Amino acid sequence: MALSPQLLSILACPEDQGPLYLVDVDERDDVVLYNPRLRRTYQVRDDIPIMLIDESTALDEAAAGELEDLIARHGIEPTISVDSY
Fold first, then answer.
1. What sign has the CA pseudo-torsion 61, 62, 65, 67?
2. pLDDT at 29
3. Which of 36-40, 49-53, 57-61, 77-81 has the lowest mean pLDDT?
4. 62 phi and psi, to 5 degrees?
5. What's CA 24's distance to the chain center, in Å?
6. Which of 5, 6, 12, 33 is deepest in the core (most CB within 10 A)?
7. Residue 44: beta bridge partners?
8. Greater model confidence, 85 or 43
9. Distance (Å) of CA 62 to CA 32, 41, 68
10. Do residues 18 and 35 lie in contact, with contact meaning Cβ atoms separated by under 8 Å?
């Protein structure tokens, strides 16, 4: 994950403008930005976040739960401060 901390600090979901979580899904370079409120992921390709709603992936409850477990287990912080949301 080579996204700059400055970029991550301003990234928000294009639909609800809320914070996202940068998650290494399979711990093999499959990195996504995850919105737990909408259960949606945005791909990161070649260290570039693809922040297009039409290209996002809606997750079912089980897949969303797996990502949320990863976030909790690894203590992943949101991209923007929840206070500023």
1. negative
2. 64
3. 77-81
4. -65, -45
5. 9
6. 33
7. 49
8. 43
9. 17, 14, 10
10. yes
Q: Which amino acid is at 75?
A: G
Sequential DSSP letters for 32-51: EEEETTTTEEEEEETTEE--
In DSSP terms, 42 is beta-bridged to 33
Residue 4 has pLDDT above 90, yes or no: no
| Tokens representing residue 59 in the block | 């997750």
Structure tokens at 42: 């945005």
Is residue 1 pLDDT above 60, yes or no?
A: no
Give me the amino acid identity at 15: E
- Please list, in sequence order, all residues whose beta carbon lies within 8 angstroms of the beta carbon of residue 59, skipping any fewer than 6 positions away: 39, 40, 41, 67
Amino acid (1-letter code) at residue 34: Y
**63 φ, ψ to 5°?**
-65, -40
